[in-house]
Amino acid sequence: MARAVLLTLTAVMFMPTAAFAAEGGGHVSPSVYEFMVFVIAVFVGYYVVWSVTPALHTPLMSVTNAISSVIVVGALLAVGVSLTTSDSAVAKIFGFLALTMASVNIFGGFLVTNRMLSMYKKKDAPAKKDG
Amino acid sequence: MSANVAALFYLAAGVLFILALRGLSSPATSRRGNVFGMVGMTIAILTTLGLAAPTATSWILILLGLGIGGFIGAKTAREIPMTMMPELIAAFHSLVGLAAVFVAASALYAPSAFGILADPANPALGIKGGSLFEMALGVAIGAITFTGSVIAFAKLSGRMSGKPILLPMRHAINAALGLLLIFVIYSFIQSAGSAWLFWLIVFLSLLIGVLIIIPIGGADMPVVISMLNSYSGWAAAGIGFTLGNIALIITGALVGSSGAILSYIMCKGMNRQFLSVIAGGFGGETAGAAAGGGEQKPVKLGSAEDAAYVLGNAGKVIIVPGYGMAVAQAQHALREMADALKKKGVEVKYAIHPVAGRMPGHMNVLLAEANVPYDEVFELEDINSEFSQADAVYVIGANDVVNPAAEEDKNSPIYGMPVLQVWKAGTVFFNKRSLASGYAGIDNPVFYRDNTVMVLGDAKKMTEEIVKALAH
Fold it and tell me: What b/e sequence results for B268-282 when a residue is b if at least 16 CB atoms lie within 10 Å of its CB, and e otherwise?
């Protein structure tokens, strides 16, 4: 279980994030909830990834690449900012660049994963050709 | 769309991403898992569009960005040869890192759009301290991921030598840069979001990314690429906290732990400490011909015909592929050889070492590409006991992962690394280009054993010649 402890430590690295945002008062701030989700997701990731068969470690890397491009949600918000100041124009440009990069990853990541996975077949089963 | 409904949709996207990884527990369920991932991504994008309600001009930009990026991504995914997969993964990592930097920059320049102002009524007060901290973490890790991946890409694609580049006092330099980075992040938060301090963080992190990857040698690339995978996840999580987006936080956590676990598995496969890999300096591109000087030990040399004769008359053959097979693109010829052997009634299995190749699972993908059924391919723990029952072994493009010194020679640098015990088989046919040592630069005693026959030559050509000889 040493590994789980290590992971917890990694997660705790992000603890100051939550502490910063907790501004006293009687209620729990959204940042603390987000931090809880994060810690639980680290553990879910830990158990799910250990169950991945070593034969599929390359597709695992390409699919994690694809899903981390969900950062596109930030890019979409940035592209959508209304142009009021020169700063918002800068934000829009960066948003557009981020959107384009994330899109390369989303399409490239999922499609290349699918292409790889379609090659894995059992004995005597005909190979599925990808289009 | 209300923020609460949106949050639930984001949660759904996160759960679908978990299912996407869960599907990879077996090849049979993996493609369905990939579909879950795509659905999750679609939900996340549509939710954001519903939430942001972009104007007409924004829509044009969004479709343009999705179109350009999507076209490049799809084209690459379709055309990239399987042997170039490690480079592609490194390139993808660099894009995630850079996208994280750019999203953070957007948030810095338009904080109101991201809801991170300390006081929305008074923008002059700047951005919330917590958001600045999250943003700084995300951007620093993102920038390190970007340049680190670019260097890894250059090394993997041969645009840069795989030899470690060791700067004098590199640990001191890195430590100093790290401390400076922490100080600048602190000042950035104190300044309530100064743009020049933000770009200083970016600059320092880009520099650190280069410096931490250049000292790491070619043989350690599987660890590096897994580590960068992990970093790209933590960067995404940092941005997720800045935006308060659950889908991004869950994904960041998943990807971060996935990369961390892969790094751990790769380090264990080499019996190396993660920190010593990061410290670098191990394993050059070609460590020079070890056979040059020193004592001349006799080796037995064989021809393709010799190999074909013994392999063809064996009851059971185990094939051990390595990075050399990938370089020579010999996987298809290898499968033809296995087919020819099976036709003669020989039982054929493949044995894969966890660090064979340049990234986790590299060999498995190449064999799958050549139509080798995955139930003939075995991992080290599952097949190591079978070598003693095998009549013959064909080692193609592997070296260090079959080196008995790892078990027998306490002074060997790779002592303690788990290896495939090929020497226990009846006869070992060892295909190599020359008698040079492997990436780790260590002599391999298997070459000189009585039951080893060296078949020197290009992996693909040699295997094709064996196929030809088997047909006779």
Answer: ebbebebeebbebeb
Of A11, A58, A121, the CB nearest to B374: A121
Residue B298: other Cβ atoms inside 10 A: 7
Distance CA B364, CA B373 (A): 10
What SS3 state is found at B301?
A: strand
Q: What is the pLDDT of residues A51-101, one digit of tens each?
A: 999 999 999 999 999 999 999 999 999 998 888 888 889 999 999 999 999
> A7 — phi, psi (to 5°)?
-65, -40
Instruction: Determine if the pTM surpasses 0.80.
Output: yes
Query: Is the Cβ pair A54, B377 closer than 8 Å?
Result: no
Tell me chain A's radius of gyration from C-alpha atoms: 20
CA distance between the termini of chain B: 72
Q: Which of residues 371-390 of B touch A (CB under 8 A)?
A: 371, 373-377, 379
SS3 of chain B: helix, strand, coil, percent, to 5: 65, 5, 25
Please give the mean pLDDT across all residues of chain B.
89
Out of A57, A59, A79, name the one closest to residue B262 (CB). A57
ipTM reported for the complex, 2 dp: 0.88
